[in-house]
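Quick start: read one record
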Amino acid sequence: MQETKSVLPVKTNEINGNGSIEPVPSNSNGHTNLVKTSDLPISKFVSNEDLIAEERALIESEENVEKNYKGLRAYLRLFKVSRVIGMLSLYLYLDQYDLHHAQHLKMAESRLETARRLTWLAVLGEKFYGVYLIFFHWFLLLLRRFFIGTEQNKEVTQEKQAVWLKEQLIELGPTFIKIGQSMGTRADLLPLPFVKSLGELQDSVPPFSNDIAFARIELEFGKKINEVYAEFEIEPIAAASLGQVYRARLFTGEEVAVKVQRPNLEGTIKGDIEILRKVAKFAERFPSLNENADWAGMLREFDVTIHEEMDYAAEGRNAEKFNENFADWTNVHVPKIYWHATTQKVMTMEFIHGTKVTDIEGLTARGVSPEKVNRLLIKTYLKQLLEDGFFHADPHPGNLLVMPDGRLAFFDFGMVGRITPKLQAKMIDAFFHVVAKDPDGIAQDLIELDFLKPGADEESVRDVVRRMFKFHLDLKLKDVNFKELTYDLADVMYDYPFRLPSNFTYIMRALMTLEGIGIVTDPEFNFFLTAKPYAKEFMLRREGKDLRKMFVDKMLGRGDDSEGIDWGRTWKLAKMAAKTVFNANK
């Protein structure tokens, strides 16, 4: 995370001769003034007693965090987490109660039909069950009136509930802030007030103590802070769920951003994951809760991803890999990592000045077209998803800046996704089946991409897909909206045998976030229309490369003789290439 705009006045501080902090005017570029690290109070701690006290204070702060997962505190935290999850589940259930009630009635009718084929006693039992359903229905209607309200005040009530949820997640700490940030991009799962409120988690995470941050830096490097940095800013410029960022200057003169991890983050994440596993195990007793999403799989993926994100050295390597993939793109920039001042818990990188991609006024004032920035962003993601198989999984506006020279800068590579070549090929096929309005092809893609619930009848899927896509496939491509399509998919996935596979969690998150940025920067934006030429370009390049290799292998007698050339695929690719060349020359 970096500075969002370099022209806003910011309150600044400096240290006086007594070691206290006093405000001073901001410098000409709008930043708070950097302070010489030799003037920081912690730099004065040089005796053995001082260093021992500094380390002991850091250890004590981390032990206080760990106590939350031991003894009675552990049960209290389990109760707090379960309460938040339970309340959210209740809100969502009641919000969609009409759908649930229809499902209950459908099941009751089916049970009654079965009972009629058995005995009168079974029919009587089902009649009693029907009476129970009536009382249950009235009870839930009362609950809905209390928690959701009427149609007139429903949105206001949900806004209050959403604020409550955001505050609870902040109180629960880094793990749940991170989960909340992910949920804030899932408009297909949550009502709009919740999405808006959770979206604020990107910018409203409370910072932790400077004393702890500076002590962490010194412990990680095994040096005093004034031996690594010449100047340092007193207050963090950004606070995130896993750490916070300071501006500093190296002795060699480079302006840098220093990212410092929160105290005992590993213990916090480990304890919270264990709690979530217990909650998920309890939820397994109710199969209907696991039908529409692979919660256990999503938790496993979150566990892997969050541990990758906690390793700042791995984040630095991800940034360098991303930079290599875009080495030929002169309009994309990745901050340089300074490895001599980077460890698993502290990272030092180039400081970038720039404007958020969603700051329309700021971009326009600098003569930068927000629409062109958006199209560049889409093109970079299609390259990441369809060509590189390695993508930035957290593209919220705080991690994307337009630099003064117009380049698009990417930050925060802790959360990245990886896509196998096989999955890439299936995704490309699915994209073009949607573009070609081919419901049978889409149905086959959903089967191959593991979007079916366990035990679902594959033959019944095609008819469902035809009905599901009837409205959208009859629209012109320019009128198809990815988010609206996702909303409709969510309804269908609830009623029919579909689920979101865990390996699509971060792909969907990235795509939903990208379209959100696109709608802000370009009201006429349409994901499919914008993505089509780029997807075609990457498909031709990738599939053409595979076909060339296949032909060469056949000519030279390499490879498996049992595998013939897919002439249907070859003809389809040739037609697409010819059409692309023809349109380019028009």
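Residues 1-30 have pLDDT under 50 and may be disordered.
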